[in-house]
Specification:
Elements lengths: L6 E2 L4 H11 L10 E9 L4 E2 L1 H12 L3 E12 L3 E12 L10 E8 L7 E8 L5
Parallel strand pairs: 2-7
Antiparallel strand pairs: 1-4, 2-3, 4-5, 5-6, 6-7
């Protein structure tokens, strides 16, 4: 069994920068928060490597919607960060209504370099029932 202590605090700049890269569809330096060999399991995704994470997210976002991420709460510990937020999703197709699902993300930090995310596990939605 492992015990961790968490502190509820403001989201760190690295996380805000990553969400901004997605929201602005720029996919630049905000992804430097990931270790080069990071793994992302976002929903059904199983992406390996910082560049694969960046490129796959770009392809997903570019499929017809714009996202705007909002922080609801952030919990911090040395090697695990927990994020809860909302994401407003506006679709390019005017017949598709905008949605604002809940997101929950776990960021496991690299033990060798705790400034980098080693494993990102996250879920968004559902976007409707």
């Amino acid at each position: 069994m492992t015990t961790m202590t968490f502190t509820r605090t403001a989201a760190p700049q690295w996380l805000l920068d990553m969400w901004k890269e997605i929201d602005d569809k720029t996919f630049g330096k905000g992804f430097d928060c990931f270790a080069e060999d990071a793994v992302c399991n976002l929903g059904v995704a199983d992406w390996h490597g910082r560049e694969a994470i960046r490129n796959n997210l770009r392809q997903f976002i570019d499929r017809g919607f714009t996202a705007l991420h909002e922080v609801v709460e952030y919990w911090d510990s040395p090697l695990l960060k927990i994020f809860h937020g909302k994401v407003a999703m506006s679709f390019d197709d005017p017949t598709v209504a905008a949605v604002r699902p809940t997101m929950t993300h776990f960021f496991y930090m690299d033990e060798k370099d705790p400034t980098k995310v080693k494993h990102w596990i996250g879920a968004v939605g559902p976007t409707g029932f």
